[in-house]
Amino acid sequence: MPKHYRYYARLEADPEGGLQVTFPDVPEAITGGADEAEARVNAAEALGLALRGILAMGRPLPR
């Protein structure tokens, strides 16, 4: 049975404009966007890349 993971994103105003997105459980995944829609799309991509990198290094995924 496949495991399901849920990672919460934190969207905050970026002092330089737009939004910054971080993931408390995956500190490697940091991104942003000019608006919420762009920030969410970029967040999904950043999270995916970070998780693939974690697996490539042989580390377990954060729970």
Helix coverage percent of residues? Answer: 25-40%
Pairing-aware structural class of the strands and helices? alpha+beta
Residue share in β-strands: 15-25%
Total beta-strand segments: 3
Description:
- The chain has 63 residues and is of the alpha+beta class.
- The protein has one domain.
- 33% of the residues lie in helices and 19% in strands.
- The chain contains one helix and three strands, in the order βββα.
- The protein has one helix at 36-56; strands spanning 10-13, 19-22, 30-33.
- A three-stranded antiparallel β-sheet has the order 1-2-3, covered by helices on one side.
- The longest helix is centred in the C-terminal third of the chain and has 21 residues, at 36-56.
- 14% of the residues are buried.
